Amino acid sequence: MQTNFQIVLPQNFNSLTIRQLLQYWLVPKKWQHFLRIEQMITVNGRYHSFNELVQTGDLIQLDFAFLPANRQDYLTSATQKPEILFEDATTLIVNKPAGIKTHPNRPDENGTMLNLLKTNHSDVLIVHRLDQQTSGALLVAKSTVAVPIYNRQLTNKTMKRHYLAWVDDPKHILTTGKITLPIGQDPHDQRKRCVDRLNGLTATTNYQTVKHQDGRSLVALDLETGRTHQIRVHLAAIGHPIIGDPLYNPNPHSLNNGQMLLHGDQITFTPPFSFTAKTVSAPLPEYFPN
Asked: What CATH number was assigned to the domain covering residues 160-264?
């Protein structure tokens, strides 16, 4: 696990104090405290007060050796080779196939994406998840340092997840809109979630129709929140369930061997200690209609 980082501030960098820079990078306050008292952050090889300015061309060195190991031990699985879309010292983005869980729920469980990644990566840490029947871009951390930074990006909505789904559209065609129905546990089925206006958690899904044909529509979706089954529950609640959804479509027919037609096609994020967001795209699976 990488805990040492060296960053040269870019040409277009606007001067900030060291404290402001760490805040910009979303470094937790507790970690900022340890970096300061242990003098484990240097500028051009020397420790400086957190009130001093840094500027273009400065070399920032960070050492997070004070962090305890946060390994998540998974069984290794070599049943298939994951499709890696992006990799650096802290981050993996993999194209998760439908039918494979994101992570195991028990120590003896195998065959999930994290089990597959464990074969060639000693440390893999969950950041977000995709439903078992959902395919697409899945971001996984390779370092403890990255996890709270990415969690904060999810919270402040600077990490963006974009999806495509084919939905039933028999009576009227979806156009553009926002679904803000709160989501809670389904009291009748532990596998499911439902709209719960009294006790549900806030959930927001933005959608836009890309094309319509033969009583179905291809819809582009962006999440503002990340509730379990959010897209599936929201689309079903407005009368446009995802084709092939075994839980929320009362007629879960599929044009493609029973696959649920929901795919995470893009994820936008900012790698730790950088200044530029990256967008990584996940190719559509072969069964997904264009």
From this structure: 3.30.2350.10
